Amino acid sequence: MRADLLTDAVDGLDEALAAVDGFDQVLVGGLLRPQPAQAAGLAGLADAVAGSPLAGRTAEASEKTAAGAADEDHFLVLAAARTALLGSVHDALVARVEEAVGRPRAEETAAPGAGAEHPVNLLAAARGWLCDLARTGWQGIDHELVGGAAPVVTAMLPEPALRRLATLLDGFAAELAASCPGATLERIPVRRWADLWSRAMLLTLPGADRTAAVTEVTGRLLPLGVDLHEHATAVQAQVHAVFEPADGTTPRLVRAGVSAPKPDTVVGAGLWQLLRPHMSLLAAVSEGRAMELDAMPVTAEGDLIWDDAHATPGEPADAFATARVALPTATAAPVTPVDRHPARIAVPVLIEGYAVEKEDDGLAFRVAGERLAVDAVRVPAAGPLTAEAVASSGACLGLLRWDAGEFVLQPLAVERTVRKKPVAVHAGAWAGGTADKAGVRAEKAATDAVTVLRERAGRLLRK
Asked: Would you say which domain of life the source belongs to (predicted)?
């Protein structure tokens, strides 16, 4: 790995992010009566896209908004310009990562699939609420304004094609409601709320939420590791893997995800009990096995639409062997324009030959003389991998991300030397079940909690 490329400055990156930050500050105070500082932020966004096809419309939208005369179309253009800027940041960072790891890149663009017709009135209603938010600003939000999303979300949920936007609006409104009134907030998540607002605005365009085109693949799937995402009411496991096509063509990086609702009392290893019934791949990850796929649906962005009927367990496959042999030649799938964002970057990499540095705020690896921050906070409590194991490791398989202005490594698995033998520790080792004593205790505690919840739910239903 060319670790020096991960620390070198990327041309234009700071300027693009400064323009995004300037616009995000505009949304804090609202666009109803813009102040001079807000007008400067709007002009900065227009200047940043001056050399793009968005230049003319963004300049017009910026001027109209600064004058307090903007309509919904102008707000939509501003959201598109902001998204385009962050998309350029995403592309520049991904290109830098691929250069650093020496991995081939996919040149084509992910083609959109066919999309269903959406009720225009519901999209217009959602856009109207989002524009009201923008006019008011984060400092001006109150329960009455935020509550305006509820009837829109309720009307959207029965429409399968609108559930993506409905879910986004529902979660966004819940975050805003928990922060009302905005005038009393000591800290505002400026970038996050601007991200959610911009994303939702673009999804109100008919056809903007079309998923990538879906094809079918046959071959061998070699798991690398599991990235677990936990929320108070939901959990998701995303398996990163290398797919080797049966026809002998170039291996590809793919993902397979599974999600499930959860009560807030189920945590730790108990999360796997909610996910296992929906994906046999989790058992393969725990057992260190490959999976043989037959006509498994996959999007152009590399997301497997998992169906157990199209998968069978294969031969043993060590994740570190896969990372050393197959990962360097695997190509990454392209990303659709609307999904390009620095927060989306999660590139599987294998790091070896590093020195571990313990810092006040965590860990870092010294790779070829360069510092690479380690995000051990992302390591889930639902597995045996710990920060201590990472600190005593000699090889790390993880996801390279970009956060707070630098590249960071999220460990998925590490190799340690125990009694002069290499021993692998995986974050997803308990995904399909375990005989590990700590894992068994955690599973039992979770099983007891789930049993009690099901019993209480049964009582309520019987009443």
From this structure: Bacteria
Q: Please count the helices (runs of H) and the strands (runs of E) in the chain.
A: 15, 13
The tokens describing 119, both together, are: 């009720």
With CA atoms as reference, report the closest residue to 246 among 270, 269, 275, 217.
Answer: 217
CB 86 within 8 A of CB 63: no
CA 227 to chain centre: 10
> Which string of DSSP letters, residue by residue, matches 96-136?
HHHHHHT-----SPPPB---PPP-HHHHHHHHHHHHHHHHH
How many C-beta atoms surround the C-beta of residue 293 within 10 A?
Answer: 28
Element (H, E) at 444: helix 437-462
Q: Say if strands 406-418 and 370-374 run parallel, antiparallel, or are unpaired.
A: parallel
Contact 132, 234 (CB under 8 A): no
Compute CA 189 distance to the chain's CA centroid, rounded to the nearest angstrom.
17
Cis peptide bond prior to 181, omega within 30° of 0: yes
For residue 233, give the amino acid letter.
T
Could you tell me which residues are beta bridge partners of residue 313?
Answer: 291
Task: Please answer whether residues 89 and 12 qualify as being in contact, where contact means their C-beta atoms are separated by less than 8 angstroms.
Answer: no
Residue 185 identity:
L
pLDDT tens digits in sequence order for the chain, 463 residues long? 888 899 999 999 999 999 999 999 999 999 988 899 999 999 999 999 999 999 999 999 999 999 999 999 999 999 999 999 999 999 999 999 999 998 876 655 555 555 555 678 999 999 999 999 999 999 999 999 999 999 999 999 888 888 889 989 998 999 999 999 999 999 999 999 999 999 999 999 987 766 667 899 999 999 999 999 887 778 899 999 999 999 999 999 999 999 888 777 777 888 888 888 889 999 999 999 999 999 999 998 999 999 999 999 999 999 999 999 999 999 998 888 888 999 999 999 999 999 999 887 789 999 989 999 999 888 888 889 999 999 999 999 999 999 988 999 999 999 998 888 889 999 999 988 776 777 777 777 767 666 766 676 666 655 5
Distance CA 240, CA 182 (A): 39
| Selection from 229, 253, 219, 221 nearest residue 428 by Cα | 229
Structure token digits, residue 45: 């966004």
> What is the rounded CA–CA span in Å between residue 235 and residue 265?
12
Largest CA distance in the chain: 72
The residue type of 455 is: E
